[in-house]
């Protein structure tokens, strides 16, 4: 295992650990998910560049586009939640209320 792959695996696991432990604010959850997506993008980019296969060269760009869509949707939910509830604390949100 190269040093680059070790660093990428470590950063993905740290983002996953942050997602599982720091669930107090919605913004922290979105930042951890974004870190995981960027790490997956870097892993996929290094994987496709090491294989030199032209058919899978578009996959990192598609993953980056999906990550941008996920980030914009998450920020829209954050704004809507903070406007309706006044805060982004996850303890104050009850999804069962109508």
TrEMBL record:
EC?
7.1.1.2
| Predominant place of localization | mitochondrion
Known catalysed reaction(s)? a ubiquinone + NADH + 5 H(+)(in) = a ubiquinol + NAD(+) + 4 H(+)(out)
Q: Where in the cell is it found?
A: Mitochondrion inner membrane; Mitochondrion membrane
A molecular function (GO) held by this record is: oxidoreductase activity, acting on NAD(P)H
Topology within the bilayer? Multi-pass membrane protein
Per the record, the GO terms for biological process are: ATP synthesis coupled electron transport
- InterPro entries per the record? NADH_UbQ_OxRdtase_chain4L/K (IPR001133), NUOK/Mnh_C1-like (IPR039428)
- Family to which this protein belongs: Belongs to the complex I subunit 4L family.
Report one GO cellular component. Answer: mitochondrial inner membrane
Protein name per Swiss-Prot or TrEMBL: NADH-ubiquinone oxidoreductase chain 4L
- Give the species this sequence originates from: Takydromus sylvaticus
Pfam families reported for this sequence: Oxidored_q2
Transmembrane ranges, per UniProt, are 28-44, 56-80
Enzyme class label: translocase
| Role this protein plays | Core subunit of the mitochondrial membrane respiratory chain NADH dehydrogenase (Complex I) which catalyzes electron transfer from NADH through the respiratory chain, using ubiquinone as an electron acceptor. Part of the enzyme membrane arm which is embedded in the lipid bilayer and involved in proton translocation.
Keyword annotations of the record: Electron transport, Membrane, Mitochondrion, Mitochondrion inner membrane, NAD, Respiratory chain, Translocase, Transmembrane, Transmembrane helix, Transport, Ubiquinone
